[in-house]
Amino acid sequence: MKLAQTAKLDGAGLLPDPIVKAETILVSIPFESGGVPPWSFGGRPRNAFDTLMVRLETESGVVGWGEAFSRNEDVALKKLIDTRILPLVLKRNASEIARIKFDLEFQLQNFGRVGSIMYGVSAVDTALWDIAAKKAGMPLVNLLGGAFTGELEVYASLMRYGNCEDVARITKQAVDRGYRFIKLHEITIPEIKAAVEAAGPDARVMLDVNCPWSVAEALRYDRELEPLNLLWFEEPVWPPENYIGLAQVRATGRHRIAAGENAGSLHDFFAMIEAGAIDIAQPDVAKTGGVTELLKIAALCEAHGIEFVPHCALFGPGQIATMHINAAVRTTPILERLYCDFEAELFGGLNLPVQGKVSVPTAPGLGLEPDLNVIRDYQVR
Ligand SMILES: [Mg+2]
Predict the structure, then answer these.
(1) Is the separation of the CB atoms in 290 and 121 below 8 Å?
(2) pLDDT tens readout for residues 35-62
(3) Distance from the CA of 186 to the center of ligand 1, in angstroms?
(4) Which of 6, 119, 231, 372 lies most in the core, judged by the most C-beta atoms within 10 Å?
(5) CATH number of the domain at 3-138, please?
(6) Exposure b/e, 4-33, CB count within 10 A at least 16 = b
(7) How far is the CA of 319 from the centre of ligand 1 (A)?
């Protein structure tokens, strides 16, 4: 076969290119958020965020990066992915993205359809898409149908400060930095009111409370918060899979209800929508099955008239993948970014918003590669 033909076939992914190396890399990078330490995420509160990456390398030398949701130097999750998931990926043909994802999910179904296993599967799927786009010589967004925009509006997703002074000050700071959308994680009325007031007329405010309340409590807040004109009300009801309870809050019509970061797959979103639980679907590329699953969920949302706005409390390849996904959706969802400043930037600062906006990378694949020096300096083993 002539070389040109071989290259063409290879570029189309028609020649097998097995995964010969599969590893996880965990980094934890300190940040500053201008106030008290944020949520504990089940561990001790500290001002550092994990980025748990999956790195796949093919026989032809193409490297793909994915990300699994992780917090608090989660070496247990890293080990789980190392031992349960990655051995099943080795020797597989990298272009068989959907098939590999299905096989992983099927073989590991007894270990959980939501949570740690799915985080690992998500990371593998994203890394395979990175490889596919690199081999095709185009940015990921082109493989997803092409970009509706080259620049995404970013929303500042604030930490929970728990006091009026800090949350008002940081809200004002975010607006001054050019953010037009601010999401709060406060759960008490005075703090929420103080932040909405601080945001002023130039920014819309969303409220995310992370599932703290019974339906009755949520309905009380739903009533009390109505005058604040919040853009959306996120996860007001415990537990996250209480879709009927969520639907009861939504039925008041006082707020648009957002949820989905704790879902595991397309089918969870189908159930949410069937229950009438949400206006806004928030799947997370590092939790809900990677790029492949988010595309399915986007289509489901489109068919049901539900807004698709991915969750993204990520700072690694998952964040970059979310940028490509958002850019490929006609409604161009706003991109979530937890509001904090890191001691070191994994992508050399190229993914940092400027005036509340960020450019979608244009190089092949995810288009940004993690800085190996930052990995060396902040790696958790
Ligand atoms: Mg949330």
Answers:
(1) yes
(2) 766 665 666 767 899 999 999 999 999 9
(3) 11
(4) 119
(5) 3.30.390.10
(6) eeeeeeeeebeeebebeebebbbbbbebeb
(7) 15
